[in-house]
Amino acid sequence: MKHDIVDADARAQALDVTRSWIVQAPAGSGKTELLTQRYLALLARVSQPEDVLAITFTRKAAAEMRRRILNALDCARSQPCPALAHQRQTWELAKKVLVQDDRCEWALRDSPSRLRIQTIDSLCASLVRQMPVTAGLGAVPATTTEPDPLYREAARATLVRLESGHNGCASVRCLLGHLDNNVMRTETMVALMLAKRDQWLRHVADPGDFRIGRESLEAVLRSLVKETLLQARSLLVQSPFVDLLESVQYAARNCQKADQDSPIRHCLGLRDWPEAAYEALPQWQGLATLLLTDKDQWRATVSVQVGFPAKTAGKDAAQKQEFDLRKQAFLELLSELRGNESMRLALASIRRVPAPCYQDDQWQVLEALFEVLRIAVAELKLIFQAQGQADFSEVMMASVVALGHPDNPSDLALQLDHRIQHLLVDEFQDTSITQFGLFEKLVAGWQSDDGRTLFVVGDPMQSIYRFREAEVGLFLRARRHGIGDVPLHPLQLSVNFRAVSGLVDWFNQTFKQVFPSTDNITTGAIRYAMADALGQDQADIQIHPFIGADGDQEPARVLAIIDRIRHIEPTASIAILVRSRTHLVPITTAMDAHGVEWHGVDIERLAQRSVVRDLRSLLHALLNLDDRLSWLSILRAPWCGIGLADLLAITTKAGNGVLWNVLGHGVTCEGLSPHARAALARCSQVFKKGLEQQGRGALSLWLEEVWRLLGGPACVTEASDLEDADAFFCLLRECDQDGWLLDLEVLDERLVKLYASARTESEGAVQVMTIHKSKGLEFDYVILPGLARRARGSDSRLLLWEERTQMGGVTDLAVAPVKAAEQDDSPIYRWLQQIESARGMNETSRLLYVAATRARKGVHLLACLGLKASSQPPRLLAPVKGTLLEPLWPIAEPEFTQALAQKIARSDTGQAAAIEESKAGLQRLPADWQLPAPPTSISLPSIVSSGRARLPIEPVEFSWAGDVARHVGTAVHRYLQHFSQSGVDGYDAERIRGQVQDWLAASGVPDEQLAPAVDQVDEALRKTLGDTRAAWILDNLHESSASELSLTGMVDGQLAHVVIDRTFVDADGIRWIIDYKSGKHSGSELDIHLDREQQRYRPQLERYARLMSKMESRPIRLALYFPAMAGWREWSYSSDNEDRENV
User: Fold this and answer.
1) Which domains, and CATH codes, for the chain?
2) What are the distances in angstroms from CA 955 to CA 893, 1062, 1100?
3) In this structure, are residues 69 and 34 in contact, taking their beta carbons and an 8 Å threshold?
4) pLDDT at 417 over 80
5) What confidence category does residue 912 fall into, taking pLDDT thresholds of 50, 70 and 90?
6) Is the dihedral of CA 1031, 1032, 1038, 1040 positive or negative?
7) Per-residue pLDDT tens for 577-599?
8) Would you say 198 and 434 are in contact if contact means Cβ atoms under 8 Å apart?
9) Is 957 strand, coil or helix?
10) Among candidate residues 840, 839, 814, 816, the one with its CA nearest the CA of residue 826
């Protein structure tokens, strides 16, 4: 079997743990298994497991790698050697690890946390935590996943300097003037720059750095111009078109004779391809003008305007023949060039090369912008400190600072240098510039013969996270020059274990044409690496072209494809992948209409769901009586359901006044329908009651009660609607921490980032997701609709920059400020924008590759193109730039050409019937609807008695103690829940003390007892964070982990509701149920006290276990954790095999 795998030698070399490697592992090549084997091979040789560090980019990837390693060790420990070669190799490597484990007494089975497998964010946080002062952050802040409001606040504080007269006000004034004094636009653009500061801050942080001086920046521009020309020249020199130069000369002579003002004239006297120098730029641009149209496409025809007179312009037969021969010879050369996409792009780039120097006014703006950005970063740091928060970029940059300079490493860097013997990096193609710098510092001082190794693996063909600052060019750089002083030996995997051979063949034929022919670090161009298949199997591959209005049939075709696959292969997995979630709407609507079950996660924005829109309008209306739009929305909502004519009558009666003055005071409106009168009478009473209760109790509970009384739950059509409503109430609780002091703008900003609840996944449901979400997954069949639809474009940035790394690690920067409001163009900015656009085009090709290679057996690609207006015969429009169809066009064009011919030939112009859409009228409750009365009895099969059922709630833990003890316990529970969800990296004792004090005071703790209560909470949290067992309990990488988990079910014939403090499944598959007990013990016999507490709470925890055992079959262990004492008691639970149906 091993000899059948053509890249077996490369895979074997990757396990040579004496050398450093960079491995390109294309889709389906078994990258994760190779990483696992390398990790095991290293573990078998090191003296401590901590000597090996594996870094991934996501928690999911880290958990998967850890799971595979532990499973390999378990299989080697308890199972015989497998028969399959790759499994046998993993088993043998794991066996060697077990020998080393026993010899060195690692006890990996009991201490799996010794395996150092971390996300890069976790690694950075741990570095900062070890050297907080050196890192420049002081106490480690909490890492926020929603930093946008902080960016905007910092930008606003920066612009305020204009009024305060502080340092930098002149620069702020200059920048605002450049942007036509549009404060809102300037604030937004500064905030966007702060989000990407890890890319530019190190260059502009020091105002005295010569590299941001005018002379240096213009030198970089000249270097970029030269690089662009060099690339074009190398392509032309390699081309076989020697006769092209003669045609260029001919065209230049004719342009001069005709006295045409054409760039082609600059090519006169050109005897060789122009030099790669700025002085030769006019000749290059003349060459590009001759070969390309105004839209940067290869010319299909030529005329006298480009130096080729028509045959009829000849004075005699000989000249006419010469004109015709010259023209035909040139057109033949153009037809041969037409397939050379790299040369076309190079020439197109040359046409826009600017003069490599700044205008004086542009330079003045650039200097002002540098200062404004430095001020904005300083303001952001102050906000981070005040909030006790920081974004991932801040932690990342601080971790790089904490390691010092390669020539002057910090104590932490020296310590890591001793501890880390082997470093593995997964998904290396997604590395950012800052992360690459971190890796360089981690391996600083390593020598090729000192026994330490670096192993990076990834696939540049799958680099699709440029929006997260991933730079695929870094993979190329590392492959050529290594990382730091560590040279990396390149390895290429080629076997695709995932897809059938027919599909692999199609990948090779297609993407060899789709991808660029050469690598380019600047533009992120990646050549396609050919794949090898195992076996011989046919694939189901089809391009489905639609022309013009036929595009409305795309959803129907998707349904037909699903139906055909289900008919042939009922159990096949099917996925619909799109570039943007908005592309899914017509398809999911069609699937719903035809009863096709589908499942998708993070598909529909929560804010777009009807139930959430109505709740948001209800909140806005009740908190702001002047918000007319929200009031009209809630009157239109299903619980009221007032028609448009009735709304017009109400607004007419109210005039310019407040609508509630009409609704709340029984003012009569003429012309209202009977339904509107009855609905208003009912709902107005609810609104009035809600307004009277405003300010009492929790805001979220108040809104939920109003919604319930209006009949909101009765209006929903799906169970997921109630989950979406719960998500909104949960968000409202999070945003309203200060009690009715809600910032509605913050609520709305957070709301638009949330997604509606996923549908319950049923077996065989069609999977629906974006292409980015699908990375790392695989399906039998993949459907790719909407390939001709464009994704949302990027906004203009305040500053464009191009970073270039020279030999020796020195980086240069080319920059340009956004054009002024009154400017038509900014050549340098436009040119850098063009380089960025080229990166985007290359990533689009890779995105298509990722989508297609998710398939094991078949791919269906759907796209629709329009027709050129008034074109006879009808002609297709070219694919829109930036769409997935654009790079695929060389493959798809014949299909579309044939489809167009068939469309023209058809005498029957009738189109397939479009999917019928629901035309349901206004959804609303009956006008006389009333809130149902509570049921007088509930009949449950487990209860013998027919009397009213009790819903016993678990007794509050602190009910036996006073109010102060109860509030202390609640505070400890809240922070333990927070730590288990967000980690402890951002723990700031002083900040949390302040929060605890405010919360306890608001909860009613008397002033004289407040300080001791805060001390109790602080002591419990400090002891917890210093306890290794607590770190294990709170680790959010555990499988099926949850905090404050609510369960409801039957226990002893009664319906019981419990809340479990902490639960998860450990590496051995054991379910842990842990209850926190925050009480203290001042006596000397601590063990006796803990034993008593175990006996006291055993029935409570075993009730939890009985409920949990009804939902899953796995071993369960119960435990009590005492934060204030770092105490611990655990025991096993023996399931009684209760019936599971009642949970």
Assistant:
1) 7-131+393-497 (3.40.50.300), 240-339 (no CATH), 540-601+767-906 (3.40.50), 606-753 (1.10.486.10), 963-1132 (3.90.320.10)
2) 70, 17, 9
3) no
4) no
5) very low
6) negative
7) 999 888 888 998 899 889 899 98
8) yes
9) coil
10) 816
Strands 408-409 and 404-405: antiparallel
Q: Which long-range contacts (CB under 8 A, 24 or more apart) does 338-341 make?
A: 338/298, 340/235, 340/239, 341/516, 341/517
3-state secondary structure of 1044: strand
| For residue 966, pLDDT beyond 90 | no
**Among candidate residues 305, 297, 285, the one with its CA nearest the CA of residue 827:** 285
Give the E-state strand segments of 1028-1080 in sequence order. 1039-1051, 1054-1065, 1071-1076
Amino acid at 19: R
Q: What CA–CA distance (Å, rounded) separates 667 from 655?
A: 13
- Which pair of structure tokens corresponds to residue 670? 């003429």
CA distance 22 to 8: 16
* 565, 574 contact by CB (below 8 A): yes
pLDDT computed for residue 630 by the predictor: 92
343 by Cβ neighbours in 10 Å (0-12 / 13-18 / 19+) ranks as: buried
Instruction: Find out whether 396 and 434 touch, Cβ atoms under 8 Å.
Output: yes
> Distance between alpha carbon 269 and the CA centroid of its chain, in Å?
54
**Chain segment 998-1053, per-residue pLDDT in tens:** 777 766 678 888 888 888 888 888 888 888 888 889 887 788 888 888 787 777 77
Whole-angstrom Cα distance, residue 6 to residue 11? Answer: 10
The number of residues making up the chain comes to: 1143
Using CA atoms, how far apart are residues 813 and 200, in angstroms rounded to an integer?
9
Find the Cα–Cα–Cα–Cα dihedral 518, 524, 527, 533, rounded to 10°. Answer: 180
* Amino acid, single-letter form, for residue 682: R
3-state secondary structure of 298: strand
Q: Please state whether the peptide bond connecting residue 932 to the residue before it is cis, i.e. omega within 30 degrees of 0.
A: no
Residue 608 has pLDDT above 60, yes or no: yes
pLDDT at 805: 66
3-state secondary structure of 176: helix
At residue 273 the predicted structure's pLDDT band, cuts being 50, 70 and 90, is confident
Assign 117 to helix, strand or coil: strand
User: Lowest mean pLDDT: which of 259-263, 673-677, 809-813?
Assistant: 809-813
Q: Is the sign of the CA dihedral 343, 347, 348, 349 positive or negative? A: positive
Asked if residue 290 lies in contact with residue 327, where contact means CB atoms within 8 angstroms, the answer is no
Spatial distance between the Cα atoms of 15 and 347, rounded to a whole number of angstroms: 44
Cβ–Cβ under 8 Å, residues 247 and 329: yes
- In the prediction, which pLDDT does 951 show? 33
Query: Which residues are CB-contacts of 892 (< 8 A; sequence separation ≥ 6)?
Result: 543, 545, 861, 863, 885
1089-1134 per-position pLDDT tens digit: 898 889 989 988 998 998 888 888 888 999 999 988 888 999 999 8
Mean pLDDT throughout 519-524?
A: 86
Residue 786 in contact with residue 578, Cβ under 8 Å?
yes
Q: Are 3 and 459 in contact (CB under 8 A)?
A: no
Q: What DSSP string runs through 412-480?
A: HHHHHHHH-SEEEESSGGG--HHHHHHHHHHTTT--TTSS-EEEEEE-GGG---GGGT--THHHHHHHH
The pair of structure tokens assigned to 314 is 């000849």
Estimate to the nearest angstrom the gap between the alpha carbon of 373 and the chain centroid. 26
CB-neighbour burial class of residue 355 (10 A; exposed 0-12, middle 13-18, buried 19+): middle
Describe the chain by its helix, strand, coil percentages, rounded to 5: 50, 15, 35
What does the alpha-carbon distance between residue 988 and residue 996 come to, in Å, rounded to a whole number?
A: 12
Distance CA 485, CA 469 (A): 24
SS3 at position 112? helix
- Please tell me the distance from the alpha carbon of residue 365 to that of residue 817, in angstroms, as a whole number: 7
For position 668, what pLDDT does the model report?
66
What are the phi and psi torsion angles at 1074 (to 5°)?
A: -125, 135
